[in-house]
Design brief:
15 helices, 69% helix
Length: 308
């Protein structure tokens, strides 16, 4: 199967803080109200909307997910995870159960807790393994790797990413372009790990290998477009930042996806360059992100730590 991918290192599908269906019916009134309040940075008021609705609909799984996601953004992880635990209990389908486990894992990412995030991603992987869904096994393992590398546990990150790669390529019906995609991801990971470990030459070698795979097939893993195009500047900027080339990092990362993590790195790069106004601009954007995802979790932590 050819699958459009959204990130070289997998992240959980971003949970809407207002649980608005994607391409489905209009959102419920509580979801509409909460979404509006969140857009105005009125998090306490949005949470009150969820709590009021939960009083009459305690078994509403999307509502628990939305409340948990907002509480993570508010820095209330313990409370958030009580909602995700309830969502796990309420999940009846395999897809819902996997989504709930992954949401819990991302909740721990907001506290840079690699170990506990891995426990829940492992449970999600077990479900996909039973279905012999090799691609999703790889995606979820990569998600755990992303959480761990951002938390600074490079050893755990490498193990998770290796599992992701090995799971993804295990599919006996894997198309050549999908094999290239998994190899591209693995080279990307090895370059970033080497950069984090201060091995500039090793990082450059793997970054070049990733570039070669992209040049071979820009459409790998996608039915249209250059699916991995945004992730080359992400990789280049990431390696540049962690090997001390802050000017290149600040410039190149602005060509990548502008998620909270990338914006935080841009801000930190400008800070290293002494450009405080630009640094503050990007750090504030990163700190204000409300997506419930691994990049947001890491980016918010880095930005808020620097901003104090």
């Amino acid at each position: 199967m050819r699958i459009a991918t959204i990130l070289v290192v997998s992240i959980v599908s971003t949970l809407s803080l207002s649980a608005q269906p994607q391409g489905g019916p209009p959102p419920a009134e509580w979801a509409r109200q909460a979404r509006q309040l969140i857009s105005q940075d009125k998090y306490d008021d949005a949470l009150a909307v969820y709590q009021k609705e939960l009083a009459t609909s305690p078994d509403n799984m999307p509502l628990h997910n939305a409340a948990g996601s907002l509480l993570d953004v508010m820095g209330k992880g313990t409370e958030a995870r009580s909602h995700f635990a309830r969502a796990i209990e309420l999940a009846t389908s395999k897809n819902d159960k996997v989504a709930a486990f992954r949401a819990m894992a991302v909740s721990y990412a907001f506290e840079a807790d690699c170990k506990n995030a891995g426990k829940y991603d492992e449970m999600a992987i077990a479900i996909r393994a039973a279905d012999k869904d090799f691609y999703q096994q790889g995606e979820i393992a990569d998600e755990a790797g992303r959480i761990c590398i951002d938390a600074g546990d490079l050893g755990a990150a490498e193990k998770w990413y290796k599992l992701g790669h090995d799971s993804g390529i295990k599919d006996p019906q894997l198309a050549p372009d999908m094999k290239d995609l998994w190899e591209f991801r693995w080279e990307n990971v090895q370059a970033r790990l080497a950069a984090r470990r201060g091995n500039k030459a090793e990082a450059a070698k793997h970054a070049a290998a990733a570039q070669a795979l992209y040049d071979k097939d820009p459409k790998m893993g996608s039915t249209s477009g250059q699916a991995q195009a945004n992730f080359l500047p992400y990789l280049t900027g990431y390696v540049a930042f962690y090997t001390g080339d802050y000017k290149t990092a600040a410039e190149v990362l602005q060509k990548a996806n502008q998620d909270a993590f990338n914006m935080a790195l841009i801000g930190l790069a400008y800070d290293k360059l002494g450009e405080k106004d630009k640094a503050t601009e990007f750090l504030r954007k990163a700190a204000a992100s409300t997506a419930h995802s691994a990049p947001t979790a890491a980016g918010r932590l880095m930005a808020r730590k620097k901003l104090g």
